[in-house]
Amino acid sequence: IDLANGYRARGDHTEAAKRLLSIVKDWPESAQAHYCLGLALADQRWHGEAIAPLSRAVELHQEEPRYRCALARSLVALHQQDEALAQLRLASASAQARGGELLEIGRILEEMGRPEDALGAYRQGLEKEQRAELYYQAFRVLRLLRRPQDAAASLRAALALGERASWQNELGELLEDEGEAAEALPCFQRALQLEPQEPIYHRNVGVALERLNRYEAAREALQEALRLRPDYKDALGHLASVTAKITLEREVKKRLSQD
Fold it and tell me: Is 153 exposed, middle or buried (0-12, 13-18, 19+ CB in 10 A)?
């Protein structure tokens, strides 16, 4: 089985399936062999063919949530939503379902267009295991459900467990969308500290500074974004806006000093 999975890992799904078919013939009571065969077939989008070995794996080891999740994925691909949902509910009810399994259950439920159910799976996972990915996925669903305060709290919890530049940036974007540029700016700046070569983070710092009327600093950030990505049209547009505001500000100060 390990050798066959090695072929899967290298992308040779056909050879993996051939070897696993042979293993299943020799060890028909091996749930793992049926499960891996189903995965190898699903890798090639042969979901119809994957149903039988995955169903057999579930039959042989009914408390293993991974087997039910894999079966649910193939059922979703075949547009058998009710059957997939039944498998996911049984998987989440399993005593063996830990954070990783509930993370997978939630993701499948999201793909099925069931965000409330997905959120429930992520929260169930967090009751069993504190994982940054569970908090992050919950954040995504909460944002989709237009619950920005809960979404921000969930993403902050994810960041407390494992900081990532992209997550800091997403938190900044959420706060900025809510009109909280002052709170968004430190998030963008932290993302930039973690990945200083990412032009999007320079752009976001610049836009937040512009909204805070800090035009000179905004111009510097936007210029750096354009240095890293010369064809960055959005940054170029904001730079033009900031430059115009700087010019206007200087003209106003000049007239006031003359008066």
Answer: middle
pLDDT score of 160: 97
Helix (H), strand (E), coil (C) string for the chain: CHHHHHHHHCCCHHHHHHHHHHHHHHCCCCHHHHHHHHHHHHHCCCHHHHHHHHHHHHHHCCCCHHHHHHHHHHHHHCCCHHHHHHHHHHHHHCCCCCHHHHHHHHHHHHHCCCHHHHHHHHHHHHHHCCCHHHHHHHHHHHHHCCCHHHHHHHHHHHHHHCCCHHHHHHHHHHHHHCCCHHHHHHHHHHHHHHCCCCHHHHHHHHHHHHHCCCHHHHHHHHHHHHHHCCCCHHHHHHHHHHHHHHHHHHHHHHHHHHC
In 3D space, the residue among 231, 161, 167 whose CA is nearest the CA of residue 203 turns out to be: 231
Tell me: the pLDDT tens digits for 125-169?
A: 999 999 999 999 999 999 999 999 999 999 999 999 999 999 999
The token pair that represents 47 in the structure block: 């979901």
- d(CA 80, CA 94) in angstroms, rounded, equals 22
User: Are the beta carbons of 243 and 219 closer than 8 angstroms?
Assistant: yes
Quote the pLDDT of residue 104: 97
Q: How does pLDDT run across 111-131, given as a tens digit for each residue?
A: 999 999 999 999 999 999 999
* pTM for the predicted model, two decimal places: 0.88
| Below-50 pLDDT ranges, the chain | none
Q: How far apart are CA 185 and CA 202, in angstroms?
A: 11
